[in-house]
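Session log. Operator J.P. requested a structure for one protein chain; no other inputs attached. Running the standard single-chain path with token output.
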Amino acid sequence: MAAPRAKITTDKVFDGLAEKFRRNVYGTAKGWLRQQILYQDLQQIPFLNQQIEPNSTANVLDVGGGLGQMSDWLAQQGHQVCFTEPAEDMRAEAQVLFDNQQQQHNYAFPVQVYDYKLQQISEQLEPAQLVVCHAVLEWLHQPQEALPHLATMMQSDGWLSLMFFNEHGLRFSNIVKGNYDKALRDTLDGTGQRLRLTPISPQDPETVIQGLRDQGLEIVSVAGIRIFNDYLRDKDPSEEDLLKVQELEWRYCHQDPYWRLGRYIHVIARKPA
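Structure written below.
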């Protein structure tokens, strides 16, 4: 009998995984779909909606920003962005993206790049009008301890865009894929292998939402990201069909019970003035 895998007791380290993330996540239809639904959902924040507040400028913290896609999108809209990413190779690739896009799109403000970990940011940088933290919590050994740090990063009357890997979506996916033993063991407790891209700490949405409320934050919106896409029989849909899937994802992403089975959960929260 194989020895049980040791439980992970530290945060996930991503040095050396930039290429794997680009190929397996960002370079796929599911990665594209994730970003498109996020962009739509973020229009609820007034200064990110050009129809509500055209030509507005906000200061933004992108926490654990990976390869820089979200920071690039925000910078293209004219916002002042501080990008943080502790993984050296990801940070380097993001810097190349920002430099290239600065030349092509002429950002109003260059993206500022830092190597801070989430737990260090509030001690190093000023609070922001918007804190973006996408696909970070699930890679932490103690995700709930990150929530006070995120709240501290927010200005009074500021906003938080928090996306995290959903434990219910992972469990449902295991059953659909026929991973019955894994589903029956319900091993969602941080025992994943370090070189894989399956998060070590999938999160229960209600626990995260309550944790944000405990920090005094108001929950503005909760959405499921990729509710249907990962269960399609056709794993390589045509461009036309992918756009139909996008429309369906957006139609149902805020509706109960559908949002609860999203592979990711996106929470928009606000800090009272």
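Operator note: The longest strand covers residues 154-165.
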